Amino acid sequence: MSLADGSRRGRRSARPDSGQPGNRAATEQASLWVVRRSGQPPDARAQSEFETWYQADASHAAAYDRLARVWRSMAEVDRAALRARPARKRRAAAAALLAALALPAWLGLKGEHPLADYRSGAEVLNVALPDGSRVVLDARSALDVDFSAGRREVRLLAGRALFEPAPRTPGGAPFTVLTGQASATALGTRYTVSRHQDSTRVAVYEHSVALRCLVCADSRTLTLEAGEGADVSPAGILPDAPVRPAPPAWTRGLLVFDDVPLAEAAQRLSRYTRKHILVLGGPARAVRVSGTAQVSDPARALSLLLAQTPVRIDELPGLLVLRMDDGASGKSAKPISK
């Protein structure tokens, strides 16, 4: 039995306070040791280094024990899910899982749209365009700008953005946002454009927008007034639910959750972090949360949303794991009061 295995018995770790610098450093070091020790058995030198680090401080031991339990529980869940698949698919799924867990946190959007004029990583980006127009670019988004002679065009390559065009000068070009499915020309306005895989959504908050379908057989058009929205796809321009007067919360660095499953909240927060967010188990995924979260620190946002629930957060390299606390799987979670 290794030193760490022996000391794990009989100890129950408390919910970590990752905001403390000492605890955060111990967690980062522990996560690296967990990964290093999860493959082949360590050689004598590595084992000696680990035991020296483990015994140096109680926080080291506590952090390692906690993350080792998470790692083992993840392995059990993954093996159970993979057993039901054919052998070839099991190998492919396992390889994909290992790749996702090993993905370095700093990758972000480095490989996506590298030549875009403006692109955000895991943060909301405020952009001032050459003509004085303003853009709030959501995380995981990218755009190109074409202000050559007779043009004021912005092509949204990925994600979503809020546009506040500068006024059109006499004889000047209108401000137009393009996606693969649509063009949205400002008629003195403030509006958002969201690009999805097969469609584009436009929502207008001030004045109006001339919307045109670029993938429809008959080049359909529609003028949207303030408070209106529409989805554009090969099926046409489909009016959407009424738009609230204020621009969406994400343009102010916030997300609002109103009694939603934790799985949905984690998915929405995931675009604002370079770490993958994994919710382990049906009971944890079904926990419902409410509240307003700041997207600048998703880990802290999750901590606040989950403060009154039996779900805990553990950090591994490139990964945030959300799971039911030890012995809490049979308890009902209380939603956060707003």
Could you walk me through the main structural features you see in this protein, from its secondary elements to its overall organization?
There is one protein chain. The chain is of the alpha+beta class and 338 residues long. The protein is 29% helix and 29% strand. It is built from 8 helices and 19 strands. The strands form 4 sheets. Strands 1-4-5-7-8-11-12 form a 7-stranded mixed β-sheet, with no helix packed on it. The protein has a 7-stranded antiparallel β-sheet with strand order 2-3-6-9-10-13-14, with no helix packed on it. The chain has a 3-stranded mixed β-sheet with strand order 16-19-18, with helices on both faces. A hairpin with a 2-residue loop joins strand 13 (229-233) and strand 14. Helix 2 (21-36) crosses helix 4 (58-83) and helix 3 (44-56) packs across helix 4. The protein is elongated. Mean pLDDT is 79; it is low at 1-21, 90-110 and 329-338.
Helix amount, in percent? 25-40%
Gyration radius from CA atoms, angstroms: 24 Å
> Which structural class do you get from the secondary structure elements?
alpha+beta
Task: For the largest sheet, list the strands in their spatial order.
Answer: 1-4-5-7-8-11-12
Per DSSP, the total helix count is: 8
Main sheet overview:
7 strands, mixed
User: Low-confidence spans: pLDDT under 50, at least 5 residues?
Assistant: 1-21, 90-110, 329-338
- SSE order, one letter for each helix or strand: HHHHHEEEEEEEEEEEEEEEHEHEHEE
Overall pLDDT, averaged?
79
Counted beta strands: 19
The first-to-last residue Cα distance is 48 Å
Shape: elongated
Beta-strand proportion: 25-35%
